[in-house]
Design brief:
4-stranded antiparallel beta sheet, mainly beta, 9 strands, globular
Length: 121
């Protein structure tokens, strides 16, 4: 078993009527497999968009970053239900529930993403 340190900081004096200043951190227990990679995502999931199959019953901490400079991607479960959209340069961090599956699909053209899967211990 290994640990993964996470930190989220949100700061703004112009996004709301009150100043936002939130910093959260956590240490997560993770185990094999851990995968960090880059991948081209096409407009069809069959073109390489599946990241975690629905048959996988593990819980994962997931990082996805759209490193494309022009196009966006949809983040979906294995049933193609969209729960996220990442524009160029945007990223997300979330916990993937067991047996939900994870797919990404480009909107109009092939998009390169960087992602990390960290299996919850």
């Amino acid at each position: 078993m290994a640990t993964l340190s996470t930190k989220l900081t949100l700061n703004s004096s112009t996004a709301a009527s009150d100043t936002i200043n939130i910093t959260l951190s956590d240490t997560l227990n993770v185990t094999d497999p851990i995968e960090i990679s880059k991948r081209n995502i096409t407009t069809a999931v069959a073109g390489g968009g599946e990241i975690v199959p629905a048959s996988d019953s593990n819980t994962y901490y997931v990082f996805i970053k759209n490193i494309d400079s022009t196009n966006f991607i949809y983040v979906q479960d294995a049933a193609a239900a969209t729960f996220g959209k990442l524009h160029p340069g945007e990223f997300t961090w979330f916990t993937l529930a067991p047996s939900e599956g994870l797919e990404c699909r480009a909107d109009t053209d092939t998009v390169k993403i960087e992602y990390g899967l960290f299996k919850k211990a």
